[in-house]
Amino acid sequence: VAGLGEGGSIQPSLFQSKEHYERLIGSTGKPEIGDLLLPSICPGGQIWCVNTNAPFYFKDGRVLWIRPDRDAVDGVYLRHALSTMFQMSFSNIASGTTFAELKIFLLKELNVPLPELKDQKEFVSFASQVDKSRFIAQQQIEKLQMLYDSLAQDYFGD
User: Fold this and answer.
1) Of 31, 87, 115, 147, which residue is most buried, by most CB within 10 angstroms?
2) In contact, 75 and 118? CB cutoff 8 Å
3) pLDDT in tens, 85-120
4) DSSP assignments along 75-144, one per residue
């Protein structure tokens, strides 16, 4: 889940039969677009907002599943809000003696700022533009670094 929360993808090596998958989701349900999945240990705020209807199943006691009320909460907005809260103060939110772990009862007690749904969607749109700009800037930095490395090799290499 953490990899998905950081924009990656997962290529599973194990698969379940369609019949077994249908039995599992029949008893537990399945995450839908806009739901959030997060590891219980995510101080970096690695949260995945489900963005696909492709069939998948997860079974992990350390993955928390949040199904927001679609009439009041935008899942992507909630991902940003929780991610920011976790990055700023995960150790104050989570509990545990060996390592800080987020428990479902603690998650339910969080006070997440929830502006009107239209304002949440406006924030999501803005954040998306920032992410695109950040991605483009990162690509430019990598190209500049390659150019610098090449020139440094030409000038100072053996």
Assistant:
1) 31
2) no
3) 877 776 565 555 445 566 677 778 788 999 999 999
4) HHHHHHHHHHHHHHHHHHHSB-SSS-B--HHHHHH-------HHHHHHHHHHHHHHHHHHHHHHHHHHHH
How many residues in total does the chain contain? 158
Question: Cα 123 to chain center, whole Å?
Answer: 17
* Cα distance between residue 34 and residue 66, in whole Å: 9
Q: How far apart are CA 21 and CA 30, in angstroms?
A: 10
**Cα–Cα dist 79/85, whole Å:** 10
Retrieve residue 155's tokens: 């000038």
Amino acid at position 149, single letter: D
For CA atoms 140, 143, 147, 148, the dihedral sign is: positive
